Give the backbone structure.
Amino acid sequence: MKLLKYILKRVGMLIITMLVLITIIFFLFRILPGNPVSMYIDSGLDRESQELLLRHYGLDKPYFQQYIIYLKNLIKGDLGNSFQYGKPAIEVIYERFWNTVILMLTSIIIAFAIGIAIGAVLAWKRNTKFDLVGTIIALIARCIPAFWTGMILLLIFSYKLNFLPAGGMHTPGVRFDSIVQKYFNLDFLKHMILPTITSAFYSLATPLLVMRTSMLEIVKEDYIEMAYAKGLQEKYIIKKHAVRTALLPVITIFAVQAGAAIGGAVLIETVFRWPGMGREIVLAVSYRDYPLAQAAFLLIGLMTALFNLIADILYALLDPRVALS
Amino acid sequence: MKKIKRFLKGNIAGLVGFFIFIFFVIIAVTADYLAPYDPMEILYNDDGTVKRLQPPSKEHILGTTYMGRDVLSQLIVGSRVAVLVGTISAICVAFIGTNIGLIAGYYGGVTDNLIMRFVDVVYGIPFLPFSLILVAILGPGVKNIILAIVLITWRNSSRVIRSQVLSLKNRTFIEAARLSGAGNARIIYKHIAPNVIPLSMVYVSTTMASAIMTESSLSFLGFGDPTQMSWGRILFSCYSSQAMFKAWWWMIPPGIAIAFLVLSGYLMGRAFEELANPKLRER
């Protein structure tokens, strides 16, 4: 019951967050200097046609009224037409949506799997040279800009060794009849390898360091000492007792990291010309295609908020003392 | 003895971070004297052709770019934006975050609830896409990049500082101050604030690191300050000139510079973390 109330409260927060995002984006695009309204309308036109156009787009109404209309359209899923593609912005973004989600979720899962394993080993070998070197490498991994890692990998594997494609999601010209075909083929996998590695490498440090710290806490607990006292082998204790408990905090940060990764996709997708939401938002902003930029921003925001919600719920389920009191 | 040894070990990392940071600050300050060429100057060979993509030589230690510009000079001058954006954002973020954390934590109740829900909302804003749009609309420039960073990043420090304040405000020395007639403002800034300063310093350092990363990311995406050379911008022009496969000397150095400066922030952050939370020292 308490849990249900907590979840409802969090869902309410998600709705408020989205409303704030929508409001921010609405006013950003209209009130700030150099606002895009001036982009819609050619300043070379005479006054009368300018006013006609303003009325046509509904831009002559007061901001508040425009805002209400904007909200109404949004609920209907209408975010306006993309200037570049000449079709509804939401349609364009929806095509990109899965490309981003598949790439980023894969890389974050890989980063967590490897990070948890290395973190556990480092904690097991605590206070040795091995631990020190490992921790330093993890710290450095977080400091290397992901787009630079991507460029280096492209240089090595695509240009020098020439066995992986230099970007994109498919070999140009290839057509697919179904979604399953689009994502389940060798060509797609080949294109996915480098961006996945780049992103996973950048995300590796957080789960690794959290796992290490969490393990170090656990090995001090009484029941671990008890296990030692029982004469159990260290390897067994680490595997069966310590790792399982230490996983809790790592799992709770998974969702938050996944949300952050979707925002960070902007860089990876740009370097590898991966046709996802992140690259689309950069292109849309560069071409001043504002309806498309808004749609991409709101969808990325929705994904981030959803992952935060999942993180909160997971946290409440795994550690009810903290969240529900 | 063992403890002291370990403490020093932790602080060697912090010290290394500090020296890396100072090293870059010195380069940034003296950039105009250190840079052998104007970073934007197009250089020509004796026969009048542009010095396009020349590999490292005595004249150009890090070679030249596609447009015939000196990479080393660009790298040196580029440190200015990194250090500037890093330090200013860090100070602003720590100042705002600490104050919000202090107020929310100290007053509690409705104030706390409202502020913390607001922080939750800010946590829902995707950082890089937001800064990208903000900078694109306000116009590219160092000021707007800093604004975008500060508007979002204060959320991290305020949450942690608040919980620290929550645990501090019921301690006896605060009670004593209140009984002796100290006002709220005095208690907050005279008695509580000094105890959260080490924690704020953690956020000064880590925000510096993340701000530098954000600035170079924005510049790499083509939204950097067009009047200022920056490391991200070097990589942007390298990437977009399609010459990155032919000119490793153009591509490798800026990435290393970014990584080192960001690392210095995280290293200092870890040292402050140990200071703020002595329990960590035992590890």
